């Protein structure tokens, strides 16, 4: 089991934490170096969402044709090329291309690794395997946070270091995984991707979670520095705490085995919504409590969605994971836009409370 989980965790860390989320962390320094305004920085960041959605749509087709082993290699190579593109970017065009390639890797990695778990692990190990691999984002955040703290001005060298780690991870995965194919979709791919009624419930759950969590990913750090007067060091500490607590999401597999997907999902949604309200309390300690709750709960919920999808879409597990994460990404894209508008029209407090209430509507979704 460890032979599959550890390289999978490393790949998720490279693709998600380094390739996708680190741009937001280093965006002020990158924008200053390349003389980007806020509109350009935001537009470049949106390239990750576009790439993420495109790769999620193409991942099931690629896995069905060539197998998850080669798609994992594609994800790793795409992440490495994207990281190098960001590191060496002399202008906006090359930077956008690098961000886009890094974003492509995320949508390829998750479905391919989900298929790997289905093919390589025994049924009783699959929920735990998927949950622990999903914590790779948290491990990557734990690494990228202190690096940002220590080497803020040397962002190009940092991205080269991330790319070198990516090469090591690609070689590691190619060495330990076997090029075995899972059972292909024998019908048309659209027929396999068409969700049943329980599948629609999964997509609604992921869409709502994506919308409600988007305000936290996009505006929590700005809220701390602008509204609460937190220093940059305190904001980075907040980021690191959120990453550390995400490791607790690895326990999702065991919790699902004990109380079921339905209760796991409801508890996760409730805690996620509460974390959006707790960050509004005046003290910095409450912000750290919120980071603990959000970090652990978000990774926990995405693990629940992976397990839920693999059970609904057997044997084509990559299709279920792709659809679930596509809905999650679409929700985050919608949520970021609406959150920015709400903050501008009203206030941070109103926006965070509104998104917390919106998240609670997820409790109305029936889990089968």
UniProtKB/TrEMBL annotation:
Organism of provenance: Paenibacillus xylanivorans
Membrane topology of this protein: Multi-pass membrane protein
Residue intervals passing through the bilayer: 43-63, 70-88, 94-119, 131-151, 157-178, 199-217, 237-256, 263-282, 288-309, 321-343, 349-367
Location(s), subcellular: Cell membrane
SUPFAM superfamilies the record matches: MFS general substrate transporter (SSF103473)
Gene3D superfamilies per record: MFS general substrate transporter like domains (1.20.1250.20)
UniProt KW keywords: Cell membrane, Membrane, Transmembrane, Transmembrane helix, Transport
Protein name, entry field: Permease
Domain Major facilitator superfamily (MFS) profile: start-end pairs: 5-368
Superkingdom of origin organism: Bacteria
A cellular-component GO term for this protein: plasma membrane
């Amino acid at each position: 089991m460890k032979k599959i989980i550890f390289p999978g965790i490393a790949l998720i860390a490279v693709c998600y934490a380094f390739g996708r989320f680190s741009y937001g962390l280093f965006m002020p320094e990158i924008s200053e170096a390349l003389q980007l305004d806020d509109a350009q920085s935001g537009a470049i960041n949106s390239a990750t969402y576009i790439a993420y959605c495109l790769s999620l749509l193409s991942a099931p087709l690629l896995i069905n044709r060539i197998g998850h082993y080669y798609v994992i290699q594609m994800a790793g190579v795409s992440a490495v090329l994207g990281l190098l593109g960001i590191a060496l970017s002399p202008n906006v065009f090359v930077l956008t291309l690098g961000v886009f390639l890094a974003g492509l890797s995320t949508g390829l990695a998750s479905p391919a690794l989900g298929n790997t778990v289905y093919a390589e692990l025994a049924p009783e190990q699959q929920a735990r395997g998927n949950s622990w691999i999903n914590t790779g984002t948290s491990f990557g955040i734990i690494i990228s946070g202190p690096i940002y703290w220590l080497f803020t001005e040397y962002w190009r060298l940092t991205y080269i270091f991330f790319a070198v780690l990516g090469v090591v991870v690609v070689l590691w995965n190619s060495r330990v995984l076997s090029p075995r194919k899972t059972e292909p979709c024998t019908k048309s791919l659209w027929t396999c991707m068409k969700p049943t009624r329980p599948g629609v419930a999964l997509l609604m759950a992921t869409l709502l979670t994506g919308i409600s969590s988007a305000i936290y990913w996009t505006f929590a750090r700005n809220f701390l520095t602008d509204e609460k007067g937190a220093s940059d060091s305190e904001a980075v500490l907040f980021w690191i705490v959120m990453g550390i607590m995400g490791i607790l999401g690895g326990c999702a597999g065991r919790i699902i085995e004990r109380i079921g997907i339905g209760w796991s999902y409801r508890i996760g949604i409730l805690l996620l919504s509460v974390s959006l309200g707790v960050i509004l309390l005046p003290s910095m300690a409450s912000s750290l409590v919120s980071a603990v709750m959000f970090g652990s709960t978000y990774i926990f919920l995405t693990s629940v969605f992976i397990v839920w999808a693999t059970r609904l879409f057997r044997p084509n597990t990559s299709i279920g994971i792709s659809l679930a994460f596509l809905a999650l990404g679409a929700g985050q894209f919608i949520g970021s836009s609406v959150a920015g508008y709400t903050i501008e029209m009203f206030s941070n407090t109103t926006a965070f409370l509104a998104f917390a209430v919106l998240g609670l509507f997820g409790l109305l979704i029936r889990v089968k």
